[in-house]
Amino acid sequence: MENETSIRKLLETYYSGFAQKQGWEETIADDFRYTGGDMTKTTPIVGKAAYVEVIKRFSRVFQSMRVLNMIVDGDKACVIGNYDYLFPNGAVMNGNVAEIWTAKNGKLDSLTIYFDTLTFDKNIPKPVA
């Protein structure tokens, strides 16, 4: 039960800051592992700094977010987040994201997300190489 309270508190702090686009970083472990954005690449991005960069890019697209549901089981949790997006091409939409978390040593240790990647591909211009 203590672990469930701990990860729940971490996630509440994370999402409170994440919705405001500041103050969430303190909950992330230095060796954080993130998988998402392109489910054909299942090798995680490793490191807090790398995840912060991912979120900097994502923060340009989402306007607001809220937690719809949070299920905590020991040191693991599943959160359904609901996001309002404004894409660079002007498209506006709302969507849910399934976010699977683990915690270790008082920090969020990993995250795997599942969302509609096709919509992002259609609405975000690709960098020219």
From TrEMBL:
Alphabetized InterPro entries for the sequence: NTF2-like_dom_sf, SnoaL-like
Domain SnoaL-like stretches: 22-108
Protein name (Swiss-Prot/TrEMBL): Nuclear transport factor 2 family protein
Organism placement in taxonomy: Bacteria, Pseudomonadati, Bacteroidota, Cytophagia, Cytophagales
